Amino acid sequence: MALRRKTHSKYDDYFERTKECAKCLKCNKVIKLSPHSGSNNLKYHLEKEHMDLFNEIRENDVQVKKKREMSIAESKTQSTIPFLPVSRVSVKMAPNKSGGEILNNWSQWQKNGSRSAEVEVSLMEMIAHDVLPLRTIEKPGFLNFLKVLAPKLRIHKRYHFTNTLLPNLVNRLENDIKGALKNMVFVGITCDGWNSTDGKHSLLSVTAHWLDSRTFEPKYAILGSCAVRGRHTSENFCNIVEASLDKFEISKHSVVSVVRDGGSNVEAMCNKLELKSIHCYAHLIQLCLKDTLDLILEVEPIVLKVKKYCRKVHKSTVCREIFQSLQIQENLPERMLKKSCEVRWSSLYLMLSSFLENRRAIALLQIDNPKLNLPIIDSREWDVIDLLCEVLKPLAETTKAVQSRFEATASVVIPSLKLLEFKLNRMKREESIDERRECIAKLNSTLALRTQHLHSDSFLRTCTFLDPRFKDSFFSFSHKDYIIQKSKTATNTTSENTDGCSDVVVCTEESPLTLYQSFLKENSPEPTDPIEKNSIAKEIDEYLQHPPSQETDPYAYWNNAENLPHLKKMALEFLCVPATSSESERLFSLSGLICSPRRTNLTPERLDQLTFCSQNIKIFGFSS
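Structure tokens predicted for BED-type domain-containing protein (624 residues):
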């Protein structure tokens, strides 16, 4: 009788399996196994012969699924950002055209024919959108495809696509952006720099974020991924940003703020342009993380060990195959170990959590295969890895959430910091091991040191106040007087007291409390009777009458807030600025795909054009 394998399938409790067959433990029937059918033969046998066992497996599946869903829901309630990071963007596809005789006119399929021109424009958009090389149109396989699809079709050579169709596509998208900006009153900008891995290309991204003045719908566009010539000085960056703003007729007075990294050259650029700027929140969190790890002396050698282990498993075919077989044997998810990357936010946490998840397979791999020369991870080091995962998890969750394209405006920065501090203090109170408590305390103190100035930043406080998800519940002192003064200085006022808007009903479930609800319960001030001094104060009192709700859509709220004209105009200004420069980071990921090692003759200007077109097509759609 063959030895049973270690359990990794739900059918192993009912069958004794070998590589070729399986024996039912209830009726002793032998069932042949096939690598193509997987476990379907076992399933069909139970369903036909042993319905009670089949129902038992189905019930277990339901319980496992329910447990997984509950676990996901529970983790969401403890998020330091009280919203789901859902994108509001989808790629616009061209409408279907009616059929007909497409080959009835020879001339329209020639090089300068109407149908050939449409095909070439569509082909250029496909190349840009799908990040394909321009040489695609000259490849034999593609030419054969066109020959089979439309034998009469004749298209121009690559030179025409590069020097005519690509610039035409750039012009079309620039006009689309200008059209969308007509309903823009205020705009937020993100800027960031990027260098290709081969050092041949340097880009400076400029992205725009605004709210439609008619509908309060959030919008964004890529103004440029501009090639940087010469030194990366603030003067050079000033010229690039000013040129981008001028191209799209954006006045500097309409720029509310620039979201940037901590580079002194970018900060100096904003000062010279006389533009308000804020530090990218996600980048700030990563600096806090780095500072904390520097304070824990024994972390660095352990992290280096884990990195070396992950590289070895990725590079060695033998090592990878053994590791994957051990994952199956130990009933672990068949996912490869993640690698850390300095420029990727939260990659250290993802690497350590992946490493910890596969602890059993890693331990067996290093014990049973000493010839592989893998680093030895002892029990003490495993404890440190576990500690790091626990401490880094809140930061990683926050970093992921604040990269939401529209939900994470600058208004989430102060509430996120408050909730993060609240969560770390709770973890510290509940932790019984002194070493872990000390590590959490170090992270908390580092976070406070790096971000203490943000709590008194009038711009961020105004953004938070005008977000109906937060209002004034995350301030240690009132911001009402500043809002009144800010509103008084506005040149344009609207008539007051039209039909009012209604708040989204606050969730009435009391258990379990989310992290957001727990914080508000402990920190919200008692409601006071409003003192109506003027129209602005009256608006603010009316606005604060209802408690904040994390379920509120801030854009829909202000679109319907006709009874709060002064605050509505301020919301149009302050809720357009993103919390992070993640849109620029996404843009550079795209540039990295375009700038592949094989494209050695790609010029900086061409890279700029292709990046600009690829990302903006996703926003404004195809032309036909």
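Residues 285-400 form one domain.
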